[in-house]
Each structure stands twice: as C-alpha cells, then as structure tokens.
Design brief:
Chain C: It comes from Methanoliparum thermophilum. The complex is a heterotrimer of chains A (413), B (268) and C (365). Chain A contains 17 helices and eight strands. With 413 residues, chain A is an alpha/beta fold. In chain A, the strands form two sheets. Chain A has a four-stranded parallel β-sheet, with helices on both faces. In chain A, strands 6-5-7-8 form a four-stranded parallel β-sheet, with helices on both faces. In chain A, helix 1 packs antiparallel against helix 12, helix 8 packs across helix 14 and helix 15 crosses helix 16. Chain A is globular. With 268 residues, chain B is an alpha/beta fold. Chain B folds into two domains: 120 residues, 2-Layer Sandwich (Nucleotidyltransferase, domain 5), CATH 3.30.420; 144 residues, ATPase, nucleotide binding domain (Nucleotidyltransferase, domain 5). Helices cover 45% and strands 21% of the residues of chain B. The longest helix of chain B is centred in the last third of the chain and has 22 residues. Chain C has two domains: 129 residues, Rossmann fold (3-Layer(aba) Sandwich); 216 residues, Rossmann fold (3-Layer(aba) Sandwich), CATH 3.40.50. Chain C has 14 helices and ten strands. Classes of the chains: A alpha/beta (413), B alpha/beta (268), C alpha/beta (365).
Chain lengths: 413, 268, 365
C-alpha cells in the first residue's frame, strides 16, 4: 500500500509562540513573587488570570516528559517508591519528578505554594493533588464539584455541551463551590476579587470557546481537514489556559487555517479511505501512531477527548458559566455521554473507531467497551480498543499496536 | 551433633548440614520436581550416607521455602519462612550485611536486617514474572543459550540493547524480533539483565538500601545481573560463594538455635 | 453460633414476606432512608471468584470488589434485587453505576452525590441530595416517608452501630474473646439482615460472649486497607498465628464508628451531618486538611489505645484510593509499628501470602 503524504494544518507551528507567551507570563509572575499553584484537572482556569497566579499543570508536564522520551525511567523511579501499576501515568511522572529531579525532564516545575483539584474529570485528581501537597507540605484546595446524572440535566448538546436544563440545587451548589474557591484565592493572594477583571477574562474565555466549537465542527468536514498531530496541543489550551489572550489568539489563528482548508475542500491526505473516531488520552510517547494510520488513508474527523473541554459560555453570567462546565464528557453518566457521542458519530460519518484504553485511568478506560458496543449496536460501526497508557510505551510496544491497527484497517475494507 | 536446614523452593531444593560449631558439613541441591516428598528424602538420605552420619545424630531439622509445610508434615521438626532464613544465613556469612536481595525462581525479595541480623522489614515481588529467575529462563530459551552462560556472555556486550517491554511475554517477543534483526547476542542478554535489575532495584528501594548489600538465590550466580543491579542501586553487592544455599544455611542455624532452646527449656 | 448469623436464605425469606431488596456498595450509603421506606438495604459482597463475563464490559485491572459484584450481577446471582443505590465516591463507583444500570436489570437505580468536602456548603448540598433521594424512593415505591419513619430508622441504625462497637471491644481483651475472622463474619451477616433483627441477635450474642473464656493469646494485629468481603482473607492471616484485634475497613469500624444525632429536628439533615462526619476512607476531608492525614489520625488514636504488635495494610492494585494512599500510609504507620503491606487479588494466592505473613510474624519475635 502506498503511503500518503500528510498535509498538516499547522496548528503545531502556531503552538510554539503561544507556549512561549505562556511561559513568559509565568516567569514574569514568578519574578514578582506571585503565588504558584499546581492544578489538577483544572477547569475554572480563568480565575488564574483574574488573580495573576502562576499556573502549573503537572499533567501537561508529564505529557511533555513522555514526548521527550524521559517517562520510562521516571516511571521506573515511581515504582521504586512503592506505587503500583494501575494509577494514572501523569501521576507516575510528576511524582517521580519530585522524588528524583535528576531523572526528570527539564525545566522542572516550580515549587507550588498550594495545589488545587476537582474531580469532574477524574477522581484521581483529588488524590494526586493531595499527595503532591503532602510531598511539599503545602495547602491543598479541593473543588468538590458534583457528578452529573441524567436526571440533573436531561441531555446535553453534543457539540456545545449546553444542557437541556440543570438542576437548580446542583447549579447553586456548584456556584457556591466556585465562590468558596474565590475566597481561598483571596486569602492566598491577599487581594480582593476584581469583578471587572473577571468579566473581561470571561469575555475572552467565551470567545475562545466559540472558536473551539467552530474548529470542532469544521474538523468533522469531509474530507477530514487536519491530522491528530494538529490537535496534540489542543487540550492544553482547552483545559489549562482558557481565559488567556494567548489562548484566544491561538484558537483564532487555528480557526483561520482550518476554515481556509475546508473552503478549499482539501483533506489532510490526498485520498481519504476511512473516517475514524479516536478517543482516550493521546499516547504522548508515540504520537506518530496517528500518522501511521493517516498515511494509510485513515483519518480522524472526531476526537472527543481533545474537545472534551469545549463548553459554550455565556460571559454575561460568569459564575454560572463556569459552573455549567461541570458537564464535561468525563463527568456525566454513560447514557448521556453515549447519546451525545452517537449523534456526533453520525454527523462525522464514521467508518470505525480506535479507542485508547489508558491503563490506570478509570474514567477513560471504563467507557471504552460501552462506546464500542453503542457504536456497533446503534450505527454498525466497528471499534478497536488498544491498551495504551499515555506516558509508558513499554506496556504496549508501538510495533504491537501497529499490528493491531493493520488488522483493524484490513477488516474495514 | 548435626543440624539440618532444608529449603524447598519452586525450582530447586537445597539442603545444608551443620555441626555444633555452626560449620557447614555438607550441602547439596536438586530440582524440586513434581514429587517433593521424594526429592526431600532423597536429598536428606544421600547427604547422610555420604557423610556417614546416622539419623539420630541429626538433632533438629528446619524446613523453609514453599515446600516447608509439606516437609513439616512428614519430616521436619519446624518450619520458618525463607525470608527469616535468608536473613539468618546471610548474617552468618556477612555479619555487616543490612540488605539482602534474593532472586529465586518465582520470587524476588528485598530484606532489611537490623544490627543483630534480624529482619526489620521486607518486600516481595508481585505476581509478575519480570523480576524473577523465571524471566531469565524464558529469555535464555528464546536466545538458545543456557541460563548458566548468560552472565559471562553479557560481559562481552559493548552496545547494550534496550528491552522496552515490562511484561515477560512482550519482552520475549521483543527479544525474538531482535534476534531476527541480528542484534548481537551479548547485547540482547545485557539488555535482559538490565530489565531484571530495573525491576528488582525498584523492589529493593521500597525497603531502603543500607550497606552491606548481599545478593542470594540462583540468579546471584549471574555476574551480568549483579553488575547491572550494582549500577542501578549505586551500592557494591556481595555474593556468597554459594548463593543458592543461604536459605538452607539459615534454616540449619535456626535448627541449632531451636534445639538449644528446647534443651534449655527441658533443663529448667 | 457464628453460623447462625450466616444465612443465605434470609434474603429470600424477606422477599416472601413481601419486602423489596435494595443493593448497596459503600459505607457512605445512608441506609436509614432506604430502611425508612420499608425496603431492605443489603450490602453486596461479590462472592464469586471466577470472573468469566465481566471483562467484556470493564477493564480487568479494576478493584476486586467491583469485578466480583458485577460478575455476580451478570450471572444472575442478584436476581433478588429490586434496585441498587450507588454513590459517586470514586471513579470506579461512578462508572460502575452506568454499567450496572445498562446491564443489570432492576426496577430501581439511583446515584447519590458523595459529599467530598466537609464544610457548610457541602452539608447543605448533601442534605438536599438526600431529600431528593427520599422523594425518589417515595415516588417509585408509592410510599410516604415521614419524619417519624426516618427517626425510627435512625434509632435502629444507631443501635446497630453501638452494638457493633460493643462487639469490637471483645476483641481488645487480653486474651481476646473473639477472633477477627468471626467478627468479620458477623459484620457481613449484618449486611444482609434487617437491622432490627440483627440487633436482637447480636445483643444476645454479646451477652453470651462476656461469660466466655478468652482465645489463646497470640500476637495482635491492627488491620487497615481495602474493604474485605471475603472472610478467607482474615482466616488466612489469623491461621498464621495472629489475632486481628481491630480493623478500620469500610466494612469494619468505618461502617459503625459514628452516630446520627437524634436531637436534630430535621432527620434528613441529621443523616447528612452524621455521614459527612463519619471516619473517612480518604475520599472525604475538611478543606484545610488532607484526607490521608485525617485517616492517619483516626488510626493513630486507635493504635495508642490498642497497642497491637503490628499493622497489616491490605491493598488491591486495582483500588484507586488504596493505590494512591498506600505509600504514604505505609511510610507513616511504619514509624509507629511494624507494618506488612499485603496486596491481594482473587483467587487468593494463599501460599504466597502465608509466606509473607509468617515472615512478618517471625520478624516480630
């Protein structure tokens, strides 16, 4: 089979300067001795821009360690601390970076003044924040967001994540949790909450979410306009720097690129043979696995993981808007999530799905078999589930994975 | 007066006979095999016969290892786990030892000793085979080299291969594909040793490492693994002349202690 | 005597009497409300060891409890259930709720929000959550749950908790009057009984126990770790020469070492507060402290009074909570007493575990 040439959208090229701006902000704030927080599964990221907090994301750091090839030796160190195999790879790397900095990818994360977690992406975040806080002897703040059941919201729009309704008590509670957190940040910084600044940050965030959603829709065009490599930095913006000007600029520029390509009806490869969905945390150690498939003509118009944080805002109701983001893909019961997914799968006109079971991640791994079943039963779409911890390629060697990919593609013909 | 220690492991059974001065009179080992009872009696009787020792001269027998319960049922006077026995045996040979690393057929363990040679803490491997003698056996089969030759062969390696898989079965596949792509045999072997050392060093670290470090068990005969482990933990590792029998030696020493305290109790 | 508690026919008997059975999974489940609705809450154990079907639905590396209960559900061993109630207490519970709902056919299923933080905001919310739960039961089962019903159930459960507390005391005697395995069996039996019936039985048992002679004196253990629904584990440990004098498992002391304030006028609020303040498993904590420190201080207090010879932490690689906390727990507890970390999986590799337990015993002498 002839390998096809991949024509990247170029999101990756845009990311370099964006990340540079992010680091510049961090360094500036560090120099000013602003408080530094380590954030686990963080979604009200806007508040960091309101309070000028140094925002560090151990998970992003761990993904970086994996892409640099340092994660295996860090994970070996993690095991030597006495931990077991079935925990999040992100935790494995970030704990090891504290335990044995000499083994870890540089630059290291700056020391935290506090940690923050919530469990509306996964419960593990709570534990991670706690253990890291304990290792450093610093405060931990936990946002006890609720889990979303069907009876709480009815249903949610598969693209905008706007819910049919939201239980009044649940919404009030979530807003209160956020307000309590603001009080904590006021204590940490010794400064009062700046309402105007909050509104303007939320305005930026709203615009960002609009671009996010447009890009999401355009990605499902036929032929698929972009590669998964284009999306690799996307979760960083969505999860961690929502509300920043550089985040907004990034998605705005991405939007221009993808719009242009879709208008020209160009695809990421010259001849699209299969349209696949992919879900699960990306295998950061070997992102070329996506290319392996794309080169064979199998493209990915749909990646719910990368778009998981895209929730349409209404910045005129800033607290409510933040609160409504608890309805992420990961924080709802399967029935809701599967309904939304089936709708999207139909829109994207899929031939199959490649699902990454991230060993140690219960939320992602636990939903793969139900997704596989639902796609097949509702739409007749076959799926391949591959076990792929996101930072440790040793648990599933890429060669072995490619064999499975090949067999799956052969079965689609 | 003689005392006997018997270590019935998953692969090998070992016997040690000591006299009242705690000197080793004789030791021997054989494959544990399917009929453990037979293995035990054969070992015991052949040792007595060779040394011209009567059964009534052996005052106390302590069994250890996975077969200790079987041995206690029909033969031994007492049973003690191999962890305590290894500690005891190693302390006899290396009185300054504080850390024992034992890699057996299916088990690997790290034991911390206090100043008197008593076990202060220990850890054993989980059910994964990757840190055990079994791993070496599987790999030596794949390469077609005898397990006994692995150590020396690996010392020739100039360009150590990396075994990236942590699972024994995946690692075997990896080794086979390395053979297919003509990676040098010694380099593959060195990579295998590294893989096992990584796993075991992780285990060792969870008890903490304090000098002197002594390695026992059949795998300690493999110089390649010992060297690789030294590198990983950053401590010199001492290996007793017969690393296979420290458990049985410990059992024999405990047999002597128990016998003496029994006599003592009887007198008072 | 112990056998008398253990009666698998009892659930069928309740059904024959027209009762409906609700399965529960977590010691944070406010069973009082279910009880007040005239239903029988039953904690599920997952007795099956061979997992043949569950892995087509869930990863094989989840905790033993989730795998075993789900397998039993799949093969029809829980056909006595009219419904089940989950809590959002961790990722596994969250996903298992969806998976149970989809694959195990029952009349009623409910997911309760777990109160992760102990503070005013969460207490208000948890009270509302429990009110909704009450309404949901009322609607589904066409019953009225009055405040009187709730208060009666609170009384039954408070008595249940204080009796178990009493029973545990007989373990601390020198020598102990009852083994850890027997206490576990009684505990387990209580989970599938109406508490008012169980209370009478256990009261009678305790009265007899006070006259009994003690057990042989053996080294004493404090056990902590994952929930143990299989008496085999305790039997294995005790048969190696130990007595387990205390356990703070989810189905041990953490199940009863709290009470619900009967003087609070709104019974739902009282229940919310009671469960919120119950000894934590490490999921729930005050905002200013770490759950693991709260857990440690609970254990330390008990270690001080019990002064056991050693501590066994029972772990399960698949249990997220345990897998995260065990390293710190081991480190901290080892500063106080010798610690053995025993990682289990089923079918139980008894020989391997016995070696570790016996070696631990040898190291204590």
């Amino acid at each position: 089979m002839q390998k096809q040439k991949i024509n990247l959208l170029g999101f990756g090229k845009l990311f370099g300067p964006t990340y540079k701006r992010h680091l510049e902000r961090q360094n500036e704030l560090l120099e000013k001795k602003r408080p530094c927080g380590w954030f686990f599964g963080y979604h009200p990221s806007e508040l960091n821009y309101v309070f000028d907090i140094v925002n560090i994301f151990p998970e992003q750091y761990s993904a970086y360690c994996a892409s640099r090839g340092d994660s295996p030796r860090m994970i070996d160190d993690y095991y030597s601390m006495g931990y077991g195999p079935f925990l999040c790879d992100y935790f494995k790397c970030s704990v090891a970076a504290i335990d044995k900095p000499e083994l870890a990818t540089k630059p290291l994360m700056p020391r935290p003044d506090f940690t923050v977690d919530h469990h509306s992406i996964c419960f593990g975040h709570r534990d991670m924040a706690e253990i890291h806080a304990r290792m450093y002897g610093v405060k931990r703040y936990s946002l006890a967001f609720p889990y979303i059941r069907k009876e709480d919201i009815g249903s949610f729009d598969d693209i905008t994540k706007i819910t049919e309704w939201m239980d009044k008590d649940l919404l009030e509670y979530t807003i209160q949790v956020l307000r309590d957190f603001v009080t904590f940040l006021e204590e940490v910084t010794g400064e009062d909450f700046d309402d105007d600044k909050f509104k303007s940050v939320m305005k930026v965030s709203e615009e960002t979410s609009r671009y996010f959603i447009e890009i999401f829709k355009l990605f499902m065009s036929k032929p698929t306009p972009g590669s998964q490599i284009d999306l690799a930095n996307y979760p960083f913006i969505g999860f961690f720097v929502h509300g920043s000007k550089y985040g907004l600029d990034y998605v705005k520029n991405c939007y221009e690129l993808i719009k242009e390509r879709v208008n020209k009806k160009e695809g990421v490869v010259p001849e699209e043979k299969f349209r696949l969905m992919t879900h699960g945390i990306m295998p950061w150690h070997t992102l070329s696995l996506y290319n392996y498939l794309e080169e064979s003509g199998a493209t990915f118009p749909l990646n719910p993981y990368a778009h998981c944080s895209a929730v349409l805002h209404d910045s005129t109701k800033p607290f409510e808007s933040l609160a409504r983001r608890v309805s992420t893909f990961c924080n709802v019961e399967h029935e809701l999530m599967l309904d939304a997914l089936i709708k999207k799968a139909k829109d994207a006109d899929l031939d199959g799905a490649i699902l990454f079971e991230n060993t140690g991640c219960r939320i992602v791994s636990g939903v793969m078999r139900p997704i596989k079943k639902a796609l097949y039963e509702e739409l007749g779409i076959p799926s391949l589930i591959v076990e792929a911890p996101q930072c440790d390629l040793r648990a599933m060697p890429p060669e072995r994975m490619k064999t499975q990919f090949d067999a799956f593609i052969e079965s689609l013909r | 007066m003689y005392f006997c220690g018997l270590d019935i492991g998953s692969c090998m059974s070992k016997i040690v006979l000591i006299d009242e001065n705690e000197d080793i009179v004789c030791y021997r080992s054989s494959k544990s095999g399917f009929e453990i009872r037979k293995t035990i009696s054969n070992l015991y009787e052949s040792v007595l016969k060779d040394q011209n020792i009567r059964k009534d001269q052996v005052k106390y027998i302590v069994a250890t290892g996975y077969g200790r319960n079987v041995a206690l049922a029909f033969f031994a006077d007492d049973k003690v786990t191999e962890i305590t026995c290894h500690a005891k045996g190693v302390h006899k040979i290396f009185p300054k030892c504080h850390t024992v690393i034992d890699i057996g057929g299916q088990d690997s363990k790290a034991i911390r000793l206090d100043i008197d040679g008593r076990v202060s803490t220990f850890v054993m491997n989980d059910k994964c085979a990757a840190g055990s003698g079994r791993f070496l056996e599987v790999m030596s089969n794949a390469i077609g080299v005898s397990v006994d030759d692995l150590g020396l062969l690996s010392m020739k390696s100039k360009n150590k291969a990396t075994i990236s898989s942590t699972c024994t079965v995946f690692a075997e596949t990896e080794v086979i594909s390395m053979i297919a792509s003509e990676v040098k045999r010694e380099d593959i072997i060195a990579g295998i040793h590294d893989a096992i050392a990584t796993k075991v060093s992780a285990l060792t670290r969870s008890t903490g490492i304090e000098d002197e470090v002594v390695m026992t068990g059949g795998v300690a005969k493999n110089i390649g693994v010992v060297k690789s482990l030294e590198e990983k933990i950053g401590h010199v590792i001492y290996v007793p002349p017969e690393p296979l029998i420290t458990g049985a030696l410990g059992a024999a020493l405990i047999a002597k202690d128990r016998y003496e305290s029994k006599i003592c109790d009887a007198e008072t | 005597m112990i056998e008398e508690f253990y009666d698998s026919g009892r659930i069928r008997e309740y059904i024959q009497r027209g009762k409906r059975i609700i399965g529960t999974f977590c010691s944070y489940t406010p069973e009082e409300i279910i009880h007040a609705a005239g239903l029988v809450p039953v904690r599920l154990f997952g007795e099956t060891v061979d997992i043949m079907n569950a892995y087509s639905y869930i990863p094989n590396w989840l905790c033993y409890y989730s795998k075993r209960t789900f397998e039993e559900g799949l093969i029809g061993n829980y056909d006595f259930l009219d419904g089940f109630v989950f809590l959002t207490s961790d990722d596994t519970n969250q996903l298992m709720y969806s998976i149970w709902k989809k694959n195990i056919k029952v009349e009623y299923s409910y997911m309760l929000q777990f109160p992760f933080s102990v503070d005013g905001t969460s207490k208000n919310f948890f009270t509302k959550v429990l009110e909704k739960f009450k309404r949901s039961l009322e609607d589904h089962y066409s019953v009225d749950i009055t405040d009187k019903d709730l208060k009666d159930s609170i009384e039954v459960y408070n008595r249940y908790r204080s009796l178990l507390k009493e029973l545990y005391k007989y373990r601390f005697y020198t020598p102990p009057k009852i083994s850890g395995s027997d206490v576990l069996k009684i505990n387990l039996a209580g989970y599938s009984m109406l508490k008012e019936e169980f209370n009478d039985k256990i009261e009678e048992y305790i009265n007899k126990l006070s006259d009994e002679e003690g057990l042989p004196d053996k080294p004493r253990l404090y056990v902590t770790g994952i929930p143990i629904y299989d008496p085999l584990v305790f039997e294995m440990i005790e048969s190696c020469g130990f007595t387990i004098v205390f356990d703070d498992l989810c189905n041990g002391s953490r199940n009863f070492d709290f009470e619900i304030n009967e003087t609070i006028s709104n019974p739902i609020e009282a229940i919310a507060e009671g469960y919120l303040l119950k000894p934590t498993c490490g999921t729930c904590s005050r905002q200013k402290s770490l759950a693991i420190d709260e857990r440690l201080s609970y254990i330390n207090e008990r270690l001080k009074t019990l002064n056991p010879d050693g501590i066994v932490i029972i772990g399960d690689k698949g249990c997220e909570l345990c897998a995260f906390s065990q390293v710190e727990l081991r480190k901290e507890l080892a500063k106080i007493k010798p610690v053995l970390y025993l990682e289990i999986d089923f079918p139980l590799a008894k020989e391997q575990h016995r070696t570790r337990i016996e070696a631990f015993l040898e190291s204590l002498s």
